[in-house]
Write a structure and sequence with these properties.
about 350 residues, alpha+beta, Phosphorylase Kinase, domain 1, Transferase(Phosphotransferase), domain 1, 2 domains, three-stranded antiparallel β-sheet, 12 helices
């Protein structure tokens, strides 16, 4: 993860004053995560409040703001929703950037694996409520709908062609290219598997879609200092089948989260569910392809990426091919049996 870039003090003060009537007392950067179009900060304001500030340089995803705000208003208190501006908007534009403000979650840490059975049950109950919450038509229209068309196929093909044609002299980029070539058969196999399973799903009768968070992994399921559960980072919201979210807790996307007991506790909270192994297998293959493409692009194609950021992305790329990494999980997933 890279650190957030410093914000010009005058620009920050002007944005906060115009947007929320706040004045900054102190600003601390936070680990960046893997969204390279956003910087995040802890903001202490002169009103005595602590806030989580996100500053984006790409177009704002209106659905990722409006839908969490709606869910929070509907009683899903675990949903971290943006704080409205003085005009009631959910973000404030200033100097070519979009400012988004949230409550700061004190003492937040990822939902732990292997313990906290009640918290896993609450997580299950929260996802069930999310999956069964209907959206007003104007909000549903803001979200993409699942088509079972893998999103990374073209990106991986582009990267594969680039690596075949171009030499990268820098050590980090060269190391990524060497790793790509060493694992090329496996990453192309994951891409082909996602395509095959997607075709099977598209040939079946269209399923009923529900609201999905689409990225409820350990970094986005938090427990605060008081033991309260939070679901954060709604940028990937999608109308899809429940397996899009359940993939993260049934089998998981890594070897260490969740533990088998965690899955059992989660399902106790979630309740009865007829889980489709074909959809699970598809989402695992599609997710593996997306991660492979994203980390390779950060190393090879991101012009403003720092050297530390490239090294981190290369490490994460290599981790996809660990014995318990996402590629092995995807290729080992049986689409016909749970």
């Amino acid at each position: 993860m890279r650190e957030a870039a410093p914000l010009p003090a005058a620009e920050l003060a002007a944005a906060l004053a115009a947007g929320w009537g706040l004045a900054p007392a102190a600003v601390g950067d936070l680990p960046q995560g893997y969204d390279y179009a956003a910087s995040v900060y802890r903001l202490s304001a002169t009103d005595g409040g602590d806030y989580f500030l996100k500053v984006r340089t790409d177009p704002v995803n209106e659905g990722a703001l409006a839908v969490p705000a709606y869910l929070h208003a509907q009683g899903l208190s675990e949903v971290l929703a943006p704080l409205p501006t003085l005009t009631g908007a959910l973000w404030h534009p200033h100097a070519g950037r979009a400012y988004l403000l949230y409550p700061f979650i004190e003492g937040a840490s990822p939902l732990p694996s292997g313990a906290a059975a009640d918290q896993w049950r609450r997580f299950g109950a929260l996802l069930r409520r999310l999956h069964t919450t209907g959206l007003p038509p104007h909000l549903a229209a803001l979200l993409p709908r699942e088509t079972f068309t893998p999103v990374a196929t073209a990106r991986i093909a582009k990267l594969d062609a680039l690596i075949a044609m171009q030499t990268f002299a820098e050590p980090v980029r060269g190391g990524l290219v060497a790793a790509w070539q060493a694992h090329r058969a496996a990453l192309l196999a994951v891409t082909a598997r996602a395509e095959e399973l997607g075709r099977r799903l598209r040939a079946a009768p269209p399923p009923a879609l529900c609201l999905c968070h689409a990225d409820p992994h350990w970094s986005n399921v938090l427990v605060d200092a008081a033991g309260r559960l939070w679901l954060v980072d709604w940028d990937d919201l999608l109308l899809a089948v429940p397996e899009r979210d359940l993939m993260f807790v049934i089998g998981g996307i890594s070897g260490d989260w969740p533990a088998p007991a965690d899955t059992a506790h989660f399902m106790q909270g979630y309740g009865p569910a007829a889980v489709d192994p074909l959809a699970l297998a598809y989402y695992r293959a599609d997710w593996a392809g997306q991660d492979i493409a994203a980390f390779a692009e950060q190393v090879l194609l991101a012009p403003d990426q720092t050297e530390a950021g490239r090294q981190d992305a290369r490490r994460l790329f290599l981790g996809q091919f660990d014995p318990d990494g996402m590629v092995a999980i995807a290729l080992g997933s049986d689409p016909d049996h749970a």
